[in-house]
Amino acid sequence: MKAKVQVVLCKCCTEMPALLDMEKLAKAASDSENVLSVLAVDAVCDGKQLAQVVNNVKDKELDRAVVLACHKKDISPALLKAYKRAGVSEYMVEIVNIREEVVLPHRDEPHRAQAKAETKLKAALARARLLAPLERQSELMRTRNVVVIGAGVSGQAAAREAAKSGAHTILLEKTGKSLKAPGVIMPNSTLVGCGGYGGNFKLIIKAGEKIEELETAAVVIATGGGWTHLKGPLAKAVKDAIPLYRLHEQVQAGVLPKGPIVIVDTPDPAGKTLRVQDFAWDDTLETAMELKKKHPEAELWVVFQEMRAFGLSELAYKEAAEMGIKFVRYDKAGPPKIDPKNPTSMAVKDFAHGELLNVKFGTLVFASIPANPDNEGIADALRIPMTAEGGIRRGSMQRWPVTTPRPGVFVCGSALFPKPHEVAEREGEAAGSMAGGFVKPGTIEFGGVVAEVEQEKCSACLTCVRTCPYEAPFIGKAGKAEIRIQGCQGCGMCVGICPSKAIELHHYTDEQVTAETRTLLGGDF
Ligand code: SF4
Ligand code: SF4
Predict the structure, then answer these.
(1) Which ligand lies nearest to the CA atom of residue 481 in the structure?
(2) Last residue in a domain, options 366, 393, 412
(3) Which ligand is nearest to the CA of 500?
(4) Mean pLDDT, residues 475-503 taken together
(5) Among 13, 34, 36, 162, which has the highest number of CB atoms less than 10 A from its own CB?
């Protein structure tokens, strides 16, 4: 059957219409084979305009679409749902990220931007003509369990929120401390392995000396930061240095620590021995300002290499400086030093003025939080990626900040990177709520972009079985590889590595990818 394509040009990003000749782009679209409708809209995310777009699909009985707009993750959920209601499956809509791939990198080159936009449009059309609707299937979840790893502030919040959605929560806590949280609490327990897939995971738990299997529908990682793992040259030199949270507790209790007080970002300023996550700036500013308010006479220094704070907290720098808190920025190549024989003075070169300062202190405070070393084993067991600093990597910063790339696994609090208690608690609530929402329907959907083995070509070499990060391929009864599609994440690794070229990834078939790539390579860049 001949493809009937709709092309949508979104003008939302202000640079798009200013940089690109949208009429020329529309003409290039309408002159292309199989294109029956071209719409230019001000903002495809806008409900009314989206309705207009999908009504046009229905009216003209179109069966697929190419949308030139911004990042897929920013627009796709609402857009794809609307197309689905109009009878066009999500697998029949091709989204081209014109904003980030064309407009932003070529702001000063309108001719290149126009040529690239037209080439990308043609490549998307070449692929769209070969798209096929794919089936999704569903399966019942065997349990409504949500396992929360870590029983700190974010973990407890996650358990409370997940329980509100009807989930049965199980909190794994590696220490033996007693806790108040809904559901079951497993003290002295850690995750050591994981099988299955989102909705029907089978976890291997080390509970005390015993190894237990635990079925769960979802997992929330709430391991917290690594306060207890302080090391590095400054920590070695000053044995009685304290972490920031301890200073915070003293300030709350009205205690003024011995002055002057120096808060330094990390115990390892050269970053040689310790992987440190983001400097806990929000907490630092808040604690320093509170201390200065209560004790205006206190001498307080903040020594840092890079300044970051969460959202509007950045405004607090100015206020803190006006209160008399002294900020010194150092260069990573020349980090602050403390002579262990004289652990009361810090030598630091002020990056701004090039001046070498000797800052005397009575109390040294470390604001950084090393990554929690437990993250590595947990990420390994759950087969999810980590950040370079040792945090758990989230699914998408903008749209899904408490998800991970693996369906059914959520993350919150300082397991991602250090953050204030209140933010960690709110994130715990968000992750718990998402995990609760995930298990609530009691079914999982799978399929679509998944791998399939052409069994005649398979030589049962086991390469795909060993390569897949999600344990989806297995050798079936026929002695050939098969894919457990519930577990397949559509990453394509097995497709690329199979020596017999026996595996195909639906939605990214050789034919589809080749048509798109040939058009791109033959285009004008
Ligand atoms: S890698 Fe290819 S040939 Fe080897 S078992 Fe998997 S499908 Fe079969
Ligand atoms: S595409 Fe292949 S390697 Fe990737 S998840 Fe699916 S089966 Fe595993």
Answers:
(1) 1
(2) 366
(3) 1
(4) 94
(5) 162
